[in-house]
Amino acid sequence: MTNELGIAAHLAESIEKSSWIRKMFEEGARLKSIHGTEKVFDFSLGNPNLSAPELFECALLDAVRRKEPGAHAYMPNAGYLSVRKSVADRISMERGVDISANEIIMTCGAAGGLNVVLKTLLNPGDEVLVPAPFFVEYSFYAQNHGGVLKTVPTRPDFTLDIEAISAAINEKTRVFLINSPNNPTGQVYSKESVSELGRLLKKKSDEIGKIIYLLSDEPYFKLVYDDLEVPDIFSAYDNGIITTSYSKELSIPGERIGYIAINPRASFKDLLSEGMILSNRILGFVNAPALMQRAVGAIQGAAVDVGAYAKKRDILCRGLSDAGYEFSIPSGAFYVFPKSPVENEIEFVKALQKELILTVPGSGFGCPGHFRIAYCVSDDVIERSLPGFKRAMSMY
Ligand code: PLP
């Protein structure tokens, strides 16, 4: 017998911390084995249920058939130049910024991109400040690179609270991390609030005497409803970096393809790019998957039918509202984050489980008292779940 854990202590601790999603996953598997998959309403995972657009399938087949020499070889760690150029052209057109292939690095999804950026920017003990609630993996990503994730509250409707952010920034803050459209709230930050944030970060960077980077994690950029536009962070702040992916907009999260875009006006843009290219290599990603780069490079601008998600949102929100739930209507992504009718939302999540409805407690996103419903499921599942949502609420 030994006292040793068998794995690194910090990782053993992380396994414990990440247990909410895991617990939900295990509970889902248990309920499905007892009641059958059809009877369980699984809203726990942000795994898109829409199929990838046909255009993507065609581009992928085309990329396979073309049989270019060296098609499966190592490549520059930033990715194919031609693909980075297509991405840059698309961003320039969509956002009205003049960005070039030099500022684009192809990555293994947004998650890969976030790790590359944080490895490039963080010194030990540097803080990454994020508005809560937030995507739970951020704390692990910061920790991966010697950083510490700190949170700052949002307003009750989950919009940015600039005063609170101003008070939370200190000399250790290296990165301010936003995610809009947001997981878990579905909130899209307004242009005014993003501009105000840009002005604040500039002022604070000047005061502290070092750059605070604005890192904008945008995998839901194209999933917005009601003709809303996600404000461009590059026009709001020079030292801005975007991480994003095709996981949600093309419904291909298993393919692990995304990119980083660096603001062409960033103070150290060449050094940032050089650092990120090295990070992509030495983190072991080496480069983003070759075949996927060629496929997405050929169909820039394509996306799943957002109207299908808007319909799901409407069915769910109408049902929740009729049942007496309190929530902000999501403007993007595919999540609703209602208030729990009891302070301890875990109790309520358990009450929903009795109705075979799986959701995730807000504690897992740094925001107790709420719970997340991921509505990237079939319309039929949403419709059939509504009586269960109503019964659970009526008990309170
Ligand atoms: N960022 C946010 C806010 C997410 O919700 C997700 C996935 O759900 C990711 C990043 C990771 O996305 P990817 O699959 O592109 O790595």
Mean pLDDT: 95
**Structural class from helices and strands?**
alpha/beta
What's the SSE pattern? Answer: HHEHHEHEHEHEHEEEHHHEHEEEH
Query: What global shape is seen?
Result: globular
CA-based gyration radius:
21 Å
End-to-end gap:
50 Å
Quaternary class: single chain
What summary fits the major beta sheet? 7 strands, mixed
Percentage of residues assigned to helices = 40-55%
Q: In total, how many beta strands? A: 12
Kindly report the spatial arrangement of strands forming the biggest sheet: 2-8-7-6-5-3-4
Q: Count the helices. How many?
A: 13
Uncertain stretches: none
Instruction: Report the bound ligands by name, code or SMILES.
Output: pyridoxal-5'-phosphate
Write a structural description.
The chain contains 13 helices and 12 strands. It is of the alpha/beta class and 396 residues long. The strands form 3 sheets. Strands 2-8-7-6-5-3-4 form a 7-stranded mixed beta sheet, sandwiched between helices. Strands 9-12-11 form a 3-stranded antiparallel beta sheet. Strands 1-10 form a two-stranded parallel sheet. Helix 3 packs across helix 10, helix 5 packs across helix 6 and helix 11 runs parallel beside helix 13. Pyridoxal-5'-phosphate (PLP) binds next to helix 5.
Topology:
Blueprint: H1 9-17, H2 19-35, E1 41-42, H3 54-65, H4 81-95, E2 104-107, H5 109-121, E3 127-132, H6 137-144, E4 148-153, H7 162-168, E5 173-179, H8 191-208, E6 213-217, E7 240-245, E8 258-262, H9 269-282, H10 290-298, H11 306-322, E9 335-336, H12 345-354, E10 357-358, E11 360-361, E12 371-374, H13 379-394
Parallel strand pairs: 1-10, 3-4, 3-5, 5-6, 6-7
Antiparallel strand pairs: 2-8, 7-8, 9-12, 11-12
Helix pairs in contact: 3-10, 4-10, 5-6, 5-9, 11-13
Bound molecules: pyridoxal-5'-phosphate (PLP).
